[in-house]
Amino acid sequence: MKYQLIIIGGGPAGYTAAETAGKAGLSVLLIERNNLGGVCLNEGCIPTKTLLYSAKTLDSARHAAKYGVVVPESFIDLPKVIARKNKVVRKLVLGIKAKLTNNHVTVLPGEAFIVDSHHVRCADEVFECDNLMVCTGSETIIPPIEGIKSVDYWTHREALNCSQLPSSMVVVGGGVIGMEFAAYFNSLGTKVTVVEMQDEILGGMDKELSSLLRADYAKRGVKFLLNTAVTALAQDEEGITVTYQTGGAEECLVVDKLLMSVGRRPVNQGFGLDNLGLELTERGFPVVDAQMQSSLPGVYICGDLTGFSLLAHTAVREAEVAVHHILGKVDMMSYRAIPGVIYTNPEFAGVGATEESLTTKGIKYKCIKIPMAYSGRFVAENEGVNGFCKVLVADDDTVIGAHVLGNPASEIITLAGMAIEQQLSVYQWMRVVVPHPTVGEIFREALAAL
Ligand SMILES: Cc1cc2nc3c(=O)[nH]c(=O)nc-3n(C[C@H](O)[C@H](O)[C@H](O)COP(=O)(O)OP(=O)(O)OC[C@H]3O[C@@H](n4cnc5c(N)ncnc54)[C@H](O)[C@@H]3O)c2cc1C
Fold it and tell me: Which one, of 50, 40, 341, lies nearest residue 202 by Cα?
């Protein structure tokens, strides 16, 4: 059977490409070996945010008295939290299935194997295509720490389904996934220690705001070991013994559970990608152009497999761009304004350049940092909570970066993302009328202060 487009992988990149191409009338085959929705829907973005919302609701109940609301008793019903998370995932996966069906996409469950750029095998059948899109995503990195094989450690998958709260845990890696789980288990009452090799958590995000978020969680009982590397692991009836190197000394602690979250790597082996002989970057990722086309015409690479940002929203946009190229529409991928969000409580979000990235590149910039208390709505809804907004502006007054620590950073960061993507100047952005009172007004306050 011949298709105009075969897509391998049904995560955000794959299902977006399939829906967009199907809607445009292309014949599309999507091959997925697990569940439609990929990591994002089944074990990533959506389940983590569903759990974190339960944790946030618990936090709100605990702090209700600050808002004049009496909540006599608040506690977590963990099996119910997990059941709700599963229900949310099921509902959204069904939604993806329905969209693909409505757009006449053929979905084939199974493991795809690339024969060449026009042929893909699944089970015993070989399918032909005009265009091939590879969206196989990424997987958890398990570092080769001494003793790791003898330890019953968690990755995000086990942590998502934990229905009996551990009394203590070590989170190895203070990146986005590590910090979101640290926040979740801290709210629920687990004694959490985050071990991070770098001198600050959340590498790649604004360092100053990262340290403020860390200080906030430290006050709530999370212990942070920075510049620290886990060197050995062992397990007995007492729990998991974590040995780590910090400041030249070797120390250890014993915990109930250990969550491994040191990063993710693209899935690029075992399914014939090598057969294509694609040109690779120095880091081993397939080279793609601004239309997501690889060095082989008609072969597109989208999502985490590109190794660019490992974020679902990047994957979605890359897939749209690739399909537009197949359809002959003018479009190109831009990485100027990819927002990054950590759904802790408070949330932390950033888009565009950071002070650190600009300093490394030797680019001059102006920076304004104001407290979130400049927003009336923030003050109304955040009793006794601090937060900050930082805006970075180039010498020619173009807005190039924005960073927010405070709720709802995940929602308002889009305003800054649009300004940065459109390369608005401070004055152009100031002309946009925003509703009052909203937390998004914080950007106007920052620009006015600048
Ligand atoms: C715990 C966690 C939390 C996250 N939270 C967020 C968040 O809040 N926001 C955000 O933007 N991102 C988040 N991410 C990252 C996000 O999930 C990924 O960036 C996104 O899923 C990438 O989409 P993708 O389509 O490239 O790949 P994936 O979603 O990984 O999908 C790839 C699919 O390809 C399939 N596949 C692989 N090989 C084959 C084969 N040979 N044959 C058939 N099928 C195959 C896989 O089964 C998989 O379903 C999170 C990730 C994790 C792990």
Answer: 341
